[in-house]
Amino acid sequence: TWWLSVIGRLKSGQSIEAAAAALAGALPQIREATMPDYRPEDRARYLSEGFTLMPAATGASTLRTRYRPSLIALTVVVALVLLVACANVANLLLARATARRHELSVRQALGASRSRLAGQLLAESVLLSGAGAVLGLAFAQWGSRLLVRQLSTQTNTVFLDLGPDWRVLGFTALVAVGTALLFGTAPALRATRVEPIEAIKDQGRGSAREGRIGGAGGLVVVQVALSLSLVVAAGLFLRTFATLTGSELGFDRDRVLVVSMNAQRSRVPPEGRHALYERLRQAAGAVPGVARAAASVLTPVSGTSWNEDVKVRGAPELPERDRLVYMNLVTPDWFATYGTTILAGRDFDERD
Questions:
Q1: What is this structure's pTM?
Q2: How many angstroms separate the first and last alpha carbons of the chain?
Q3: φ/ψ of residue 325, rounded to 5
Q4: CB atoms within 10 A of CB 129
Q5: Exposure string (b/e) for 29-57, b if CB count within 10 Å is 16 or more?
């Protein structure tokens, strides 16, 4: 089967790189010995594909493959929101530094150096950024667990280790320090460039220039541009979501209730489970308010599939991959229960 995963144990002292090199040398013999009943073009691809070795400590999962593009897009959105928030905070710091010009000028007049005042304002920015990082980590822990719970279902529980490690903490600390230095340095330097006598004069005149904050215009332009990009992306996302929710699925989803059952946990022997399913179907159909009831192995749009190697009597012999047919096991009235319109033919009944 082409979905087979092989798990091996390395010899003592052997690395994954050494094992991969040894496996690559034996790959042609392995491929020739395991050649399936493929078409010629599929045979060439089978012989050319290699093996990938990876540590099995975290298990085999398709979660990374399924959610990697979505997580990358989400990371980009988070980065843009962070930039908008940082620009907003930088504007507030500029306004706050402008409002404190008189206080800072008095400190300069009393002997405080510009570097010391800039260090004080920068320390305030670092404290503000650090508090945001701590709150962000707490919110991320709660939000990530919530997202994993949304991904889990009764039949498919998603298990993820969501504990923060040194990489998460290091990245958060780097972002906190970086944003503080990037968006806190400019307000600190600008606030200490004004001569004490000029700030005192402005304070005495009521500071006619108080409403003009240097550099704020550029930050506002950045905020508007990033916010517009986010709004456009959100609009496209909502449009796609609305299109998906309004798509025709081929059945009436408004009045269908799906119930999953695992008869392996019952005391009924395997040979009696077919009769058990039929009794349950009839009992469900007799419940007041239920129009019809049917059973199937696979549920539509559940993401699961089942294929079988089918050989048609009298048909020419085909390679194994071409003989595979996707199928489902259903009971009578299955299409009628799902509200599927039959364009030709009839629904399954007891004769089938």
A1: 0.57
A2: 31
A3: -125, 130
A4: 23
A5: eebeeeeeebeeeeeeeeeeeeeebeeee
Whether the Cβ atoms of residue 238 and residue 102 lie closer than 8 Å to each other: no
Per-residue pLDDT of 154-201, as tens digits, reads 767 777 777 777 887 888 888 888 877 777 777 667 766 666 666 566
Tokens of 250: 């081929």
Cβ(190)–Cβ(215) under 8 Å?
yes
DSSP H or E stretch at residue 149 = helix 114-151
Distance in angstroms (rounded) separating the CA atoms of residues 226 and 215: 17
Provide the CA 192 distance to its chain's centre, in angstroms: 45
Pick from 91, 88, 76: which is nearest to 230 by CA? 76
Write out pLDDT tens, residues 86-118. 878 777 877 777 777 777 777 777 777 878 877
Q: How confident is the model at residue 205 (pLDDT cuts 50, 70, 90)?
A: low
Torsions phi, psi of 324, nearest 5? -75, 135
50 to 10, 17, 31, 38: CA distances (angstroms): 19, 14, 9, 17
